[in-house]
Recover the amino acids of this structure.
């Protein structure tokens, strides 16, 4: 009997763990002793650099404590628009509809850049493959089904590709990474745009889903002749093979910190005032086409003067000293033009 | 002093006095406290159902009953149908039971009836340990060992021997409904084995002795006397295991392929309700998307209730039958 009770208790524990949950974060006001507590929530992709920044910043200003929860971009947007956190973070810009519905009207501040890479596992191919935008869209639409397809062969002369079926691997969880990837596919393929569309999770025409970057990478590793997309940071840290992608000017570019920053520089000429811009398929000879900003979302109006000062000071620091830390963690830094624009935009916070 | 007490006793009504006396023994207090505890369980269940029902209102209004029959799950167009997830949940759990039940009951009969006591208690300890392993560990085991093994060895054999069945046709990537079912089978085994073993051990000694005295062998005694006597408990263990299989999230999502589709073949990837919720909940930005995910939870809740009700009825029917004179 004891065992039964124990097992029952155990089932309860086991079934309840593993399910993610969004708990609202209470934002605490500044306490009388001058200690300022700031809470934020959002994207998981920039979490390593954010936690490093907040840690470093706290060392400089011990009276300021920033607590960041990486609950996902969607959760970040939801919580900042409802005003349950002091700032949010997201891998995709908020839509016009979200902005009009938001109680707090968040401002967007790009912090670092990331990129997605096309990772693959073909047992007999050790060379770096070249992918044209049409080939990538075709593969993910399920129209290119063999590795020997002319689209792939023509882009990779001299490489012996196997005559086997392509297994497509994508993210199964909703993710900013997916958003960037399908945003790119929608820009290069009208068919993708009309048939599948763009969101943090989509109705995939083909393929298997893996949970998280590690899930996708694990499936690619386990499945011969597969292809999928993972974050550049993750691919670099885990030494995953990935291919070059042809950009708008016709060059095949490999994703690295320089080519990602180049994409941002290429896009900064048409940068809108509110920084809500997608830089996939960006202009520029060296620009890697599947790059993206990640944003901090700061409410336009901050009531508490202590909090307002803390947040604006932090943004200022993040754009200067903070940027010097990002490359050590494999994030691409913001181009100078964008930094200058953002420094001006900080004044918009009331 | 003595007269005073007596007057007090006499002046208070009988019922109050009785209550005070019982209070002194702690009965009333214990009753009240344990009642509150029991009521909490009930309240939590009701609250859970109510919250799921309330938060899914948007999706229920928009899709109605077609939510259960539609097969499209499109977060861009905001069209949601639960059928592929329900299918995946039921199929993976069924595979788990088909593999797990014979293994589990066989093992528990061995442990309770045939094995030497020392071996039995050692193995029982190990099995209970197995129940405490976190599901993500099982998931890792599945993705790195079971999936390649399934793809390279089991699937080709199944296809060449039982390939005429539609459930064993088509290409195998490794991650599939079958893989999820197999890892679930491994995960529910400890539940079936340890509960069934306890139930078998609880069968009165006289039953066995009577059977042996009539000249039955040990196996005949175990199979014809002990197991039927413990049937209700064994069925209970199976349903507890099934409940766990239906709700398992982490291990399933790691190997099921996370593709919301309905295919007859067990080699094809699928999805499950719990996996879908865990995967998509954090990034569900629009209200209707969130409501659809909550409604998925509601569907799972209802499936679990139905399963439990069926278990109750089965056990009830069984005990009645065994009690009725034959």
């Amino acid at each position: 009997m004891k065992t039964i009770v124990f097992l029952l208790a155990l089932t309860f524990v086991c079934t309840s763990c593993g399910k993610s949950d969004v708990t609202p974060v209470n934002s605490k006001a500044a306490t009388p002793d001058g200690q300022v507590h700031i809470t934020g929530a959002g994207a998981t992709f920039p979490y390593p650099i954010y936690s490093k920044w907040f840690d470093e910043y706290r060392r400089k200003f011990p009276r300021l404590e920033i607590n960041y929860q990486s609950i996902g971009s969607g959760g970040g947007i939801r919580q900042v628009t409802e005003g349950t956190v002091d700032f949010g973070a997201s891998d995709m810009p908020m839509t016009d509809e979200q902005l009009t519905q938001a109680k707090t009207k968040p401002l967007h501040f790009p912090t670092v850049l990331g990129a997605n890479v096309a990772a693959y596992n073909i047992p007999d191919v050790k060379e770096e493959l070249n992918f044209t935008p049409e080939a990538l869209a075709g593969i993910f639409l399920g129209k290119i089904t063999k590795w020997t397809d002319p689209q792939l062969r023509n882009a990779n002369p001299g490489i012996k590709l196997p005559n086997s079926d392509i297994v497509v691997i994508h993210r199964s969880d909703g993710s900013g990474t997916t958003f960037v990837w399908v945003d790119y596919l929608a820009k290069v393929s009208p068919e993708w745009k009309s048939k599948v569309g763009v969101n943090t999770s989509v109705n995939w025409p083909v393929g298997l889903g893996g949970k998280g970057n590690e899930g996708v990478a694990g499936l690619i590793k386990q499945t011969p002749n597969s292809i999928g997309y993972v974050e550049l940071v993750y691919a670099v840290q885990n030494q995953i093979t990935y291919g070059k992608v042809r950009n708008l000017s016709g060059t095949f570019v490999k994703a690295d910190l320089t080519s990602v920053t180049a994409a941002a520089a290429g896009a900064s000429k048409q940068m809108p005032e509110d920084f809500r811009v997608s830089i996939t398929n960006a202009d520029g000879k060296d620009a890697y086409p599947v790059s993206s900003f990640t944003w901090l979302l700061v409410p336009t109006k901050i009531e508490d003067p202590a909090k307002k000062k803390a947040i604006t000071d932090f943004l200022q620091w993040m754009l200067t000293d903070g940027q010097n830390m990002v490359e050590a963690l494999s994030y691409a830094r913001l181009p100078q033009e964008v930094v200058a624009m953002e420094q001006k935009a900080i004044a918009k916070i009331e | 002093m003595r007269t005073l007490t007596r007057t007090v006793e006499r002046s208070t009504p009988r019922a109050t006095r009785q209550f005070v006396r019982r209070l002194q023994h702690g009965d009333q207090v214990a009753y009240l406290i344990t009642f509150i505890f029991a009521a909490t369980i009930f309240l939590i269940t009701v609250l859970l159902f109510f919250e799921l029902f309330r938060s899914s209102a948007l999706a229920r209004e928009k899709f109605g009953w077609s939510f259960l029959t539609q097969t499209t799950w499109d977060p861009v167009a905001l069209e949601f149908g639960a059928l592929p997830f329900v299918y995946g949940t039921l199929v993976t759990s069924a595979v788990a039971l088909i593999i797990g039940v014979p293994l589990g009951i066989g093992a528990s009969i061995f442990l309770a009836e045939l094995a030497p006591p020392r071996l039995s208690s050692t193995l029982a300890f190990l099995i209970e340990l197995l129940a405490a392993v976190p599901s993500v560990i099982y998931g890792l085991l599945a993705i790195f060992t079971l999936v390649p093994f399934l793809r390279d060895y089991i699937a080709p054999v199944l296809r060449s021997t039982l390939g005429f069945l539609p459930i064993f046709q088509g290409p195998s990537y490794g991650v599939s409904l079958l893989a999820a079912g197999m890892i679930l089978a491994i995960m529910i085994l400890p539940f079936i084995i340890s509960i069934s073993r306890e139930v078998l051990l609880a069968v009165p000694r006289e039953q066995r002795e009577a059977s042996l005295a009539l000249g039955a062998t040990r196996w005949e005694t175990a199979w014809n006397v002990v197991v039927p006597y413990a049937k209700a408990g064994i069925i209970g263990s199976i349903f507890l295991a099934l409940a766990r299989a239906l709700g398992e999230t982490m291990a399933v999502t790691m190997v099921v392929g996370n593709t919301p589709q309905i295919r007859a073949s067990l080699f094809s990837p699928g999805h499950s309700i719990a996996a879908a919720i865990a995967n998509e909940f954090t990034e569900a930005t629009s209200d209707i998307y969130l409501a659809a995910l909550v409604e998925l939870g509601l569907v799972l809740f209802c499936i679990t209730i139905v399963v439990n009700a069926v278990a109750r009825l089965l056990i009830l029917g069984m005990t009645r039958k065994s009690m009725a004179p034959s």
User: Anything to note?
Assistant: Chain B touches chain A through 49 residues (CB under 8 Å).
